[in-house]
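Note to self: keep these together.
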Amino acid sequence: MRLFHFSEERAIDVFVPRVKANRTDMPPVVWAIDEEHQFTFFFPRDCPRIVYTRSAGLTSEDEWRFFGTTAANIVITVETGWHERIKQTTLYRYELPPESFELFDEYAGYHVSKETLVPLAVEPLSDLIERLAGLGIEIRFTPNLHPLKEAILQSSLRDFGIHRFRNAQADTRP
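Structure:
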């Protein structure tokens, strides 16, 4: 199993467990994501995005609503205002030794370790949109993520992730 940590910082020599701002109920840990789900982090750190996957249990109405115009099984939607920053960002993918990690969320591919870790390798990643497209993922841009979030939360779609939504534009609909 390969596990990764993504950062816009290019010279992290050691990963020290810390308390995550939105998980203050947890002890300090180092977070990593598995190889299968790493694409969800091919974005600048603070970029709000919604990722959803075609999966069993979708009603025919929701199948059409979320996937009716695409052959892709995974769709990622990002606010238009982030397009240029995504294009210009270079990320650094740190591979971490997997031995001390425990599975935190199988659905999302998250793993945690309570140990201080030295990365096995670091690799710069650029051309992020092209990387996603090369994986057969559809990337959509919208002025505002709020309508999509509401639609997903009221749907039969269960295989989704809403990332960094606190950084999304305010909902300005009447």
